[in-house]
């Protein structure tokens, strides 16, 4: 069973926001790009 969605692309996140606003999103969704963990990881490791 599907228990949640994670999305990274801007287009995908925008579509999920539209679905949520319309009440058509049946499971929780998280925007990975806005997570503090991803930001810290990218800042630490992507500069090497």
TrEMBL record:
A GO CC term attached to the entry: cytosol
Domain of life: Eukaryota
Biological process annotations from GO: S-adenosylmethionine cycle
Protein name: Adenosylhomocysteinase
Species, as recorded: Danaus plexippus plexippus
UniProt lineage: Eukaryota, Metazoa, Ecdysozoa, Arthropoda, Hexapoda
